[in-house]
Amino acid sequence: MDIRHVIDHGRMTALQLRVVTICFFLNMLDGLDILSYANAQLTLSRDWGIDPQTMGAVGSAVLVGMMAGSIVTAPFADAIGRRKVLMVALALIAAGMFGAAACGSVSELVAARFVTGCGIGGVVPAMAAFAAELTPLRSRNFSVTLVQGGYTLGAALTGVVASWLIPAFGWQSLFALGGVLALAGIVVVFGFLPESPDFLLGKRPAGALEQLNATLRKMGHPALAALPAAPATVKRGGPLETLSTLFSSRYLQPTLLLWVAFFMSLAALYFLQTWVPQLMRNQGLTDAQAYWSGTILNAGLFIGMASVGYVADRFGLRRTIATYLGLAAVVLLLFVYLQSTNVMLAGLGVLGVLQGGFIGLYAVGARLYPTEIRTTGIGWAMGVGRPGGAIAPWFVGQLVGAGLGMVAIFKVFALPLAIAAIAVFAIRSDELERATRRAADASRTRAPAARET
Questions:
Q1: Which of 125, 155, 156, 178 could share a disulfide with 31, CB 3.0–4.6 Å?
Q2: CATH level 3 topology of 3-229+237-444
Q3: Which pTM was predicted?
């Protein structure tokens, strides 16, 4: 039995739906973990008397941690298994969130947010790999982007939860909630998330046949008597050997372009998510309206992230992502014309939808890299992109401290979105083209669709 063919061209089973649901939940948790500070800082800045520059530096700490987590843990996920690394990453998130709830100084908060970021950096690329490796070709773009869209739904709900939790129990309660949910995530992964069949077939760890057969039975297929012969292209080296493949002549150019796209789009994303509530309050909104501005932005992000895979299946992955990000740059420039509170809030929703197109970069990575380097490729793209996300909150803090308003700052961040759009449209590789053609062929068996890349 060709297991890859069975998954690629089979129906979506209950097990695969469970995997996508778990990955979606874990990315919702990441949204809460990251946005907890953006919502807590409204009260924290008053309680501790923190200036904008310091607030920006604290906001960057989690993103620096995410960079470190992505770069360090992703090769291990390809070498020793997605599931093991995922549980370790969730434990780091729990430790960081509980640490933030208990901290008593800015330096302690920075350390706690860094630890949280390290854990998130290990979770996100593993989720993209799980969704890509356990869903049929015809729905893979949609599954990968939907899973990553859980992040924005969690971020949007964080604003709603914060609006009643923080006034009632203090900003510490939001971090404590994140710690409890991370512990729950470990239990869910241990009990209900199977290891990736692609990893089991490629790396063949101890017990690979038993784990693979358990997955096949739950998908309604007969068990294997023995593992099939390993593909000749599979490498069984350690993390360093896996990493070196990214820099081979075959992958270097598309990898660099993917890194640029991640760097620029994450800079814009984390500027918006970290600073929009504060900037809207600076525009004269109440605290409650500022909380809701973040919720509206993230609700738009969720819609954009959930839709980009569906649109890409019909109009091409690179073309769709580039269009979303290019239009987001235009919307940022148009904010100078938005005057009333309601129109600004609506503009944030539209901006969120278009900014959400960046999530398609995970699908690009999932198609660009083969199984043995997939998590490494996605993880390093995220890791290299994180400095953009880490620098942006600090940089905006400097701009706010210098007296710049929201509209002027929005104009500054239209540039990185335009660069990201150009970079993703320029990505070319044989793997990406072949994967696109296979997905298009699979989609045509169900409905006439899927054009180009």
A1: 155
A2: Growth Hormone; Chain: A; (1.20.1250)
A3: 0.72
